[in-house]
Input
Amino acid sequence: MTYAFDGDRVDGLAALPQLGKAADAGAHLIGLWPLNDATQLDNDAKYGENLQVRMTQTFARIMTGEDVTIPDAEFVYEGADQIPGRPQSIVDALLAAEDACDGMAGYAQSGDFSQVRAAADLMAAGWSDQKSQAGADVAQAVLQAMSPEGQTVEASADPQVIAQRLAASMLAAWDLAHAVGAGSDEPARALPVLLFANELNERFEIPRFYVSDEQLVHLLGQDSLQSLAEQAAPLVQAEWDGHRDDLLWDPDEAKRQAKEEDERKSREALKAKFAHVPEDPHKPPVEL
Output
């Protein structure tokens, strides 16, 4: 049976209050684009690196069932192929996850599902040829519905537009996960779906997102698309709020605030140290 992308389901999801709140967060973030400030551009690059590190940690934790840490993921992201004192299975999983992420680059423009299948193979997601074809049918139908004939999607900071696009991305991820047999008992099968969904967001001109391994298993355990959307939207909202905070972070202002905080603590410590000393009523006041 040929898969058909259902726009009515998108409309239903987009109307959920949780998606509305996430869309508002997206509007505040997208409203900063295009970035022209050098500090914000640098902050955005750092955010992108940090996002990939967090994503590969999620992937490797699911792939191995081991306690993969952020420092593990950072070491491999920076080029390590061994980590002293850490199991090689963790390093190998992180290397595979890095290759999968890198291999998905450009999917937002190409729509070539072979990139998704390659990511599935790299991360040992267990996609059979039949399930991969079912997944390809879903992906093709989504792209055709949302950007027919390869039309470029224009960026928009309108929350209603963002809610529609986020809903479409969630629907596509849900249907693709089911097409390839992913579930809370088979979370590894969903790992390429996360990459696909983020590339879809890129194509839809909305920001990327992140979920941890525990959050992924929880989402895969939902029994309906609406429940998934209600649970996932706050995670998206938090990620987009955090992305905006990262963009607006000013290192000089942060240093100034840290210095003021240190001085405040020093004054309070000095006052506490001499609190037991009686005041001399004839002594002029001293400003600490």
User: Anything to note?
Assistant: Residues 7-273 form a domain with the Fic-like fold fold (CATH 1.10.3290). The CA atoms of residues 187 and 216 lie 7 Å apart. The two ends are 78 Å apart (CA to CA).
